[in-house]
Write a structure and sequence with these properties.
The complex is a heterodimer of chains A (about 375) and B (about 100).
Chain A: E1 3-10, E2 13-20, E3 27-32, E4 37-43, E5 51-57, E6 61-67, E7 75-76, E8 89-91, E9 97-99, E10 104-110, E11 118-123, E12 126-130, E13 138-139, E14 160-166, E15 174-179, E16 182-186, E17 194-195, E18 216-221, E19 229-233, E20 237-240, E21 248-249, E22 259-264, E23 272-276, E24 292-295, E25 303-305, E26 323-325, E27 333-336, E28 342-345, E29 353-356, E30 362-370
Antiparallel strand pairs in A: 1-2, 1-30, 2-3, 4-5, 5-6, 6-7, 8-9, 10-11, 11-12, 12-13, 14-15, 15-16, 16-17, 18-19, 19-20, 20-21, 22-23, 23-24, 24-25, 26-27, 27-28, 28-29
Chain B: E1 2-5, H1 8-14, E2 20-22, H2 30-40, E3 60-64, E4 67-68, H3 80-84, E5 89-93
Parallel strand pairs in B: 1-5
Antiparallel strand pairs in B: 1-2, 3-4, 3-5
The chains are: A mainly beta (about 375), B alpha+beta (about 100).
């Protein structure tokens, strides 16, 4: 029977949650890297035993860990992230120029085909890659250097490159998203980039339909239909049918279109999940009711999913990298909260149950479907 | 032999039980101690001082013989009791955040 392995990054370490395909009895291991913030960990699609983790702390900076046995043992690898050339400046919160300074790795995206190749999205926003299993890192400077970089400005959480999506059908095409700059696309393996934000409207910036400056919280794509992208923006849930060239809003009947996480069903490219959050000032679910919303129509028409989720007195948040799906026949949906719960649904969102209740605040959730 | 005491999170990272013990030929300074420490425990590179420029990270402190030596130039000789091994060189995570 197939198995699933859920990789959870938290404010105080990483956890690995494992179950068979029934997904009703879970084994919990961790904390790994106890006491450190683990913004993200993810497995290689080409070798599921190869995992990468981003471990950081305010005292001791960035560490990258690698496992070659599915998370039982870990080895620190390279942690030198040096911007290419003279880094230059971006905008600071007050609009003044501010030097690019490396803070941490937000997201690790292993290559689809090579376990030793992995991409890292960092704060201050830039894209790095390693081709030797994380030992050495080099910036792909075309993203920061394409022209708009000096105008980028941090969001409240920092100026982070938080989303990296690799197109499985078109080698060399990849997407990245930055708060608060927007979405970007490369068609040459990350060497050159262009902003893909046409159609976004953001009232919180001086020019609401500017080419860059939008606070994109998360992008999602279904691998069988890579030209369709979904976006949870600061406000608004958006969709593109042309690989980001243009976007239109699909918030529809959501109770609020603010949120962080968004993901797509493993087998149904038109089935999308979001977790509406009240507002940018109130980072918790509307009315204290934790509801995942599912659209089976690629957006616009949304259905609340509540069975097994707290429907009163719930004031947690679900962060941008904290939702994932497995690829079992009955698609499993997973998300983690800032209250330390990780919820799983083995039936595409119809019913939910917590795997764990009391972890540190959850920063990220990834799932591996194992044979 | 130089004795180095690390904060718990760095001992765990480097897999050190107790004190790190280092042999250093030549002058015993912040720099030579940190160079020897990082050579023996490569996982510590970048976690005590930056990769570029070697500056002490903001919330890491260096103590010895009941003195805060954090602001000394890295080429400053360490106190004789540290050089002789009578006293440890303390690498400390600053009390930040309450």
């Amino acid at each position: 029977m197939s198995r699933v392995r859920v990789l959870v990054g938290t404010r105080k370490g990483a956890f690995v949650l494992s179950a068979d395909g029934n997904r009703d009895r879970w084994e919990v291991s961790g904390p790994f890297f106890a006491g450190w913030e683990v913004y993200h960990l993810k497995g290689s699609p080409a070798d599921p035993d190869r995992l990468y983790a981003s471990q950081s702390s305010g005292w001791s900076g960035q560490v990258i860990q690698r496992s070659d046995d599915g998370g039982e043992n870990w080895e620190p690898v390279g942690n030198q992230f040096s911007y290419d050339g003279v880094p230059g400046t971006h905008q600071w919160y007050d609009g003044t120029p501010h030097p690019w300074e490396f803070e941490r790795v937000w997201h690790l995206e292993p290559s689809l085909g090579d376990p030793d190749t992995v991409y890292a999205g960092v704060e201050d926003a830039a894209l790095f890659h390693s081709r030797d299993g994380g030992r050495n890192w080099a910036e792909l400077p075309g993203l920061r250097g394409h022209g708009s970089g000096p105008s980028w400005q941090p969001g409240a959480g920092g100026m982070c490159l938080h989303t990296i999506i690799l197109d499985p059908s078109r080698p060399g095409r990849m997407f990245a998203a930055i708060s608060a700059a927007g979405a970007f696309r490369s068609d040459d393996g990350g060497l050159s980039w262009r902003p893909v934000n046409h159609g976004l409207q953001s009232e919180g910036i001086p020019d609401p339909d500017a080419e860059v400056g939008h606070c994109v919280h998360r992008l999602a794509m279904h691998p069988s239909r890579p030209e369709v992208l979904y976006m949870q923006k600061h406000w608004d849930v958006m969709r593109s049918d042309d690989a980001g060239d243009s976007w239109h809003e699909v918030s529809g009947n959501l109770p609020t279109d603010f949120g962080f996480a968004i993901d797509v069903h493993a087998h149904e490219p038109d089935t999308v999940y979001v977790v509406p959050i009240t507002s940018d000032a109130l980072h918790y679910p509307p009315d204290g009711r934790l509801r995942v919303y599912r659209s089976r129509t690629g957006g616009d028409e949304w259905q609340p999913l509540t069975r097994g989720l707290p429907q009163r007195h719930c004031y947690v948040n679900v962060l941008r990298d904290a939702m994932a799906v497995d690829s079992l026949d009955s698609c499993g949906i997973y998300f983690g909260t800032t209250g330390g719960q990780v919820y799983a649904s083995p039936d595409a969102g119809d019913t939910w149950a917590p795997i764990v209740h009391d972890l540190p605040a959850v920063l990220s959730v990834e799932v591996q479907t194992l044979p | 032999m130089i004795r180095v005491v690390l904060p718990a999170h760095l001992r765990a990272l480097a897999r050190i039980n107790g004190e790190a013990e280092l042999d250093i030929a030549g002058p015993v300074t912040h720099r030579t101690v940190l160079d020897a420490l990082e050579a023996r425990y490569p996982a510590l590179r970048g976690t005590i001082r930056g990769h570029e420029g070697g500056q002490r990270r903001a919330f890491i402190r260096f103590f010895a013989c009941e003195q805060d030596l954090s602001h000394q130039d890295q080429d400053t000789p360490l106190p004789a009791p540290v050089a002789s091994g009578a006293e440890p060189y303390l690498i400390v995570g600053a009390m930040a955040g309450g």
